[in-house]
Amino acid sequence: MKKTIALLTGGTTGEWVVSVKSAATIAQNIDADLYDVYKIMLNDKGWFYEPADSVKIEIDKNDFSLTLDGRKIKFDGVFIAIHGSPGEDGKLQGYFDMIGIPYTTCDALTSCITMNKGYTKAIVEGINNLFTAKSIQIFKNGDYNISQIKQDLRLPYFVKPNSGGSSIGMSKVKHADDLDSALEKAFREDTQVLIEEFVSGREFSIGVYSAKGEVTVLPTTEVIPANEFFDFEAKYTPGATQEITPGNMSDEEYARVHQIIKDIYKKLNCRGVVRIDYFLEHETGKFYFIEINTIPGQTSTSFIPQQVAAMGLTLKEFYTSLMKETLG
């Protein structure tokens, strides 16, 4: 029997644009023989279903149901495709846990913790062969000393909102005098900011997911941005970045990276598909953890669809295995 699935898109941050594109890819590739899909938009104005005639129908938040032509539609599961809040930070996961509807992502606690780059780094610290760049986490209106930060960290450094995504509000600081303006930019996006020493290395992004009870690592993507670093423009402008899938790693690097990625996935108690970004340091080849995305982009230019194709799977096969694993 077909399952009725809500595909949840939108969000309340600047990333909603990416979310809508991700949802379009997902909707096109869900197996219609197995699932009836209703695309639900969530934004500042409410939660609603928008059928072809464009009359918005509000979702009943008491049980996340939809009344269509006098018929009440209840959902067997939710495919969450919202990047940023409230899809990626645990809020929606907590809501669905309370009303008993399964969803495709990590649970509320993992989603909440991994939105915070500083906290995530503290948890993955200690995984064999994993390194993290030296960093300082500061809070808006908190007690921090800029001159002390400049002494403690060596230039250049990245300044990034601790809970942001899509590289919004991020800066690469090469001159100590530019730190103030970089902090100002990051604090416009978040109340916590991470200042991190720059690691000189080759950048990669790799998907990992659980299906049929097994953790599977997708082929990695090597990222060679034309810009100074992999910023919002580089991420979402076709041709602004050279992306090589599968990325070029030696057999030793391949084996080591796969083990580290599986260890991160398990230690953070992930489920569904996540994407982990990392550097292989130029001089040493050491694996430096950058961050984890628990709801990675699924747009036509996103890494996960590229990596799924490189693995020889169709997106339909991939989404089906993902939904069977997480939604039952």
Jot down its keywords.
Dna Ligase, domain 1; alpha+beta; 10 helices; D-amino Acid Aminotransferase, Chain A, domain 1; Rossmann fold; 7-stranded mixed sheet; 18 strands; single chain; 30% helix
The share of residues in helices is 25-40%
How many structural domains does the protein architecture include?
A: 3
Q: Give the helix tally.
A: 10
What is the level 1 CATH name of the largest domain? Alpha Beta
Radius of gyration: 20 Å
Number of strand elements:
18
Q: Given the C-alpha coordinates, what overall shape results? A: globular
| Main sheet characteristics | 7 strands, mixed
What does this structure look like?
The longest helix has 17 residues, at 251-267. This protein is an alpha+beta fold and 328 residues long. The protein folds into 3 domains: 3-105, 3-Layer(aba) Sandwich (Rossmann fold); 113-131 and 200-327, ATP-grasp fold, B domain (D-amino Acid Aminotransferase, Chain A, domain 1); 135-197, Dna Ligase, domain 1, CATH 3.30.1490.20. Strands 8, 13, 14, 15, 16, 17 and 18 form a 7-stranded mixed β-sheet that branches. It is 30% helix and 29% strand. Strand 2 and strand 3 (46-49) form a beta hairpin. The chain is globular. Helix 2 (91-99) packs antiparallel against helix 3 (108-114). 40% of the residues are buried. The protein has 10 helices and 18 strands. Keywords: ATP-binding, Cell shape, Cell wall biogenesis/degradation, Cytoplasm, Ligase, Magnesium, Manganese, Metal-binding, Nucleotide-binding, Peptidoglycan synthesis. Belongs to the D-alanine--D-alanine ligase family. Its EC number is 6.3.2.4. This is D-alanine--D-alanine ligase. Its main location: cytoplasm.
